[in-house]
């Protein structure tokens, strides 16, 4: 029997490129995917569930996870820590589940250092002008913050070479279809399944020998 392991897929790109929208639309179509549950030190909000929305940790417990190298990536935001537990990702992959992580570029680079066997997808804006328009349409950032985000986006786009795939998000549905194609392609890669097929052949040889 061929028990295929899952794969960690990391979707990343500049702020405002539409990572969340693409991820949500993808999950509507690909129900087998597991979204990576993060750990956080912020308090649980009404309606949230442990292990579904977040793994809720004290700051001491989170710092211990950092010290013991139990996180694929982490960051501090508004006096709270957020991070991706390595154990959760590895458990899901061993069960044959594909894990999907949507994250900013700096976090993706942390993940790549700690989990290089993951598949890294860079979501690219059609143009910087369109990226600017998307950020402005949010209506949540001042003009100075928009300018800073665009400067950061230029730096992040220069890091595109660190990724395995690039998907232009000029149309959400087309971008989702491309991500789905990447998932299928990765599961068909020879180097991912060769060793498992060899084991199947060895087991079959042993059975024939016994008979």
TrEMBL record:
One Gene Ontology term, aspect cellular component: cytosol
Keyword flag Cytoplasm: yes
Keywords attached to this entry: ATP-binding, Cytoplasm, Kinase, Nucleotide-binding, Transferase
Domain of life from the UniProt record: Bacteria
Pfam family, one: Guanylate_kin
Gene3D superfamilies assigned: Guanylate Kinase phosphate binding domain (3.30.63.10), P-loop containing nucleotide triphosphate hydrolases (3.40.50.300)
Reactions accelerated catalytically: GMP + ATP = GDP + ADP
Matches recorded under SMART domains: GuKc
Enzyme Commission number(s) of this protein: 2.7.4.8
Keyword Kinase in record: yes
Domain Guanylate kinase-like: 6-184
Binding site residues for ATP: 13-20
SUPFAM superfamilies according to UniProt: P-loop containing nucleoside triphosphate hydrolases
Record localization: Cytoplasm
Molecular-function annotations in GO: ATP binding; GMP kinase activity
Chief subcellular location: cytoplasm
Function: Essential for recycling GMP and indirectly, cGMP.
Family: Belongs to the guanylate kinase family.
Protein name: Guanylate kinase
Organism: Pseudogracilibacillus auburnensis
The encoding gene: gmk
């Amino acid at each position: 029997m061929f028990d295929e392991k899952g794969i960690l897929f990391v979707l990343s790109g500049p702020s405002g490129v539409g990572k969340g929208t693409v991820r949500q639309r993808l999950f509507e179509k690909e129900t087998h995917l597991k979204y990576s549950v993060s750990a956080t030190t912020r308090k649980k909000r009404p309606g949230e569930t442990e292990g579904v929305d977040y793994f809720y940790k004290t700051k001491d417990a989170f710092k211990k996870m950092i010290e013991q190298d139990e996180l694929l990536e982490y960051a501090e935001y508004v006096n709270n820590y957020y991070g991706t537990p390595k154990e959760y990702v590895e458990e899901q992959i061993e069960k044959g589940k594909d894990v999907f992580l949507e994250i900013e570029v700096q976090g993706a680079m942390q993940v790549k250092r700690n989990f290089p066997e993951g598949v890294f997808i860079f979501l690219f804006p059609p143009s910087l002008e369109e990226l600017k328009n998307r950020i402005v349409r949010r209506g949540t950032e001042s003009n100075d913050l928009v300018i800073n985000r665009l400067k950061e986006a230029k730096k992040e786009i220069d890091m595109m070479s660190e990724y395995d795939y690039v998907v232009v998000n000029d149309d959400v549905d087309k971008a989702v279809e491309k991500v789905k194609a990447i998932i299928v392609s990765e599961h068909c890669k020879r180097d991912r399944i060769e060793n498992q097929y060899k084991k199947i052949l060895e087991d079959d040889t042993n059975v024939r020998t016994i008979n």
